[in-house]
Every structure is written in C-alpha cells, then in structure tokens.
Amino acid sequence: MTQQTAESPARKQRAQLKVRTLRTDRWWLAPALTFAGLTFFLIYGFWAIFDKSYFVEPYIAPFSSPCLTTACPEGARLFGWAPIGDWFALPPGLIILGLPAGFRFTCYYYRKSYYRSFWLSPPACAVGEPHKKYTGETRLPLVIQNVHRYFFYGAILIGAILSYDAILALIHKPAGLGTWILLINAALIVLYTLSCHSCRHITAGRLNHFSKHPLRYRAWTFVSKLNAKHMQLAWASLFSVMIADFYVRMVAKGVITFPFA
After folding, report:
1. In a domain, 40, yes or no
2. pLDDT level of residue 75 (50, 70, 90 thresholds)
3. Is residue 24 part of a domain?
4. Range 227-255 average pLDDT
5. DSSP string spanning 135-194?
6. What are the CA-CA distances from residue 211 to residues 32, 49, 154, 201, 238 (Å)?
7. Which residue has the higher pLDDT, 33 or 87?
8. What CA–CA distance (Å, rounded) separates 250 from 138?
C-alpha cells in the first residue's frame, strides 16, 4: 500500500459526511449553551473593564485586581504599590487582563469549547461541518495556542493575588457576604488553574521513574485528580469570577447596601 504524503488530498481535507448528521439526539444543545455562556462572559468582561466602580474597602473587584496605577484608590493598590503612573491612562482591568484572559483563551478545554461553538470545527461528533480543510494548530493564528504553558505561570500569580484580596477582606470584614463570595471565587480560580494540563505536566509529566521522585509523584497524583474535573472547574470559576466581580461593583455603587454586604 502506498503511504500517503503530507501533500496528499486525504491529509488536506476533513472526513466528510454525506448526510448532515448521524446523530439523533439534541447534539446542538451543548455548543449552543457554550456559545451563550462564553458570549455572556465576553460582554460582561468588556463592561467591567471600563466600569470605574471596582473598589469599596475592603473589597476589590477581581477583574480589576491587581490595581497598579497611581489613579487607583490607595486601599486598592497591591501592597500600596503603584508602578504605573497616571500618564498610562488605561483602566486597571485592561492592564492586567492579558494574564487570566490569555490563560483561559489558550486552555485545552476552552479551545475545544469555542472551536465547536463559535467555529463549528467540528460542532459535534458525527456531525458534518462547513470546513473542508484541517491544519490543526500548526499554522497562524492557532499555532499561538502553544503559549498556554507560559500563561499558566501568570495565572498562578493572579490566583495568588485574588487569594490575598480575599484574605484581606476576611481579616477586615469576616461577616461580610462579599468576603465569602471572594473566598469561594479565589478557591475556584486556584483549583481551576491547578487542574490545568500544563500544571500536570510540570509537576511530574516528564519523569520516567516516579519511584525516584515520591514528592513530585504525590503532587502529580493530586493534580491528576483535579484534572479530571477540569471542565467543571473551568465553568464554575468562569461564573464565580463574574459573580464576585459584579457583587463588589454593586456594593461600590451603593446598589447593595444591607449591613452584612
């Protein structure tokens, strides 16, 4: 049998179905819900970036943390540090958004989600798609997805900062509802980050002999268990960060005013 080369038509084209779908279930529901959820997150994020009500002591909205400009309220600055001057007139969230957004955008689970829901590539298993050619993530722009492992380190930093914000809120307002919302959000963000495939690979993915590295093996086992819940943690943390961010902004605007806010 003649071996197919990289230039053969079979390698350039996707497997095509002669019918629209072989499925009899509501296969379209999952990509439709994914499309709606991710679109809502993008719309909310765009609004939150430019909303100026992001701090009310001791709470800071997660989309605007860390606040690194001199235009930030003093209590909102990370360790009182403001390395970026007023001349850099950008919203706080826009300055640091690249780290968590880049991590989620290049996440293995989210790739599958928006490839299916936005690009229909493919929309579902055993369903015909409009794309005839398939190059995977070997060409621009999708080759950029390989930077995911580097965004992981930035995401760890953001998770640590959000945890610090939540702990500060717990110290200054332990009975506040916002405190516990921020704590739950920080926990979900950290768990989602640690459940990342890159984290699993970093802990012990390249080891040939687990017996020689017992501590790394234990870490790998823990991360592997989290990795099995990566999809659930991805969605839970996506909504928790929106809820926490929205709650803080509503308190800052005076919309939420009850005593234990």
Report:
1. no
2. confident
3. no
4. 97
5. -TTSSTTGGGGGGHHHHHHHHHHHHHHHHHHHHHHHHH-TT-HHHHHHHHHHHHHHHHHH
6. 46, 48, 31, 17, 37
7. 33
8. 44
Convert 141-165 to b/e letters by CB count within 10 Å (16 or more is b): eeeeeeebeebbebbbebbebbbeb
Residue 233 is encoded by which pair of tokens? 């943690």
Is residue 22 domain-resident? no
Integer Cα distance of 84 and 95 in angstroms: 10
Whether 197 and 173 have beta carbons less than 8 Å apart is answered as no
Q: How many domains does the chain have?
A: 1
Q: Under 8 Å CB-to-CB from 220, ≥6 apart: which residues?
A: 200, 203, 204, 205, 207, 210
Q: Does residue 94 sit within a domain?
A: yes
Alpha helices in 51-135 (DSSP H): 92-96, 98-105, 108-117
Q: What is the pLDDT of residue 95?
A: 81
Taking Cα atoms as reference points, which of 161, 157, 209, 150 lies closest to residue 185? 161
Position 192, amino acid: Y
User: Max CA-CA distance within the chain?
Assistant: 77
Domain that holds residue 126: 50-253
Check residue 260 and report its DSSP letter: T
How would you classify the pairing of strands 55-56 and 59-60?
antiparallel
The percentage of residues in the chain with a pLDDT greater than 90, rounded to a whole number, is 60
Beta-bridged to residue 10, according to DSSP, are: none
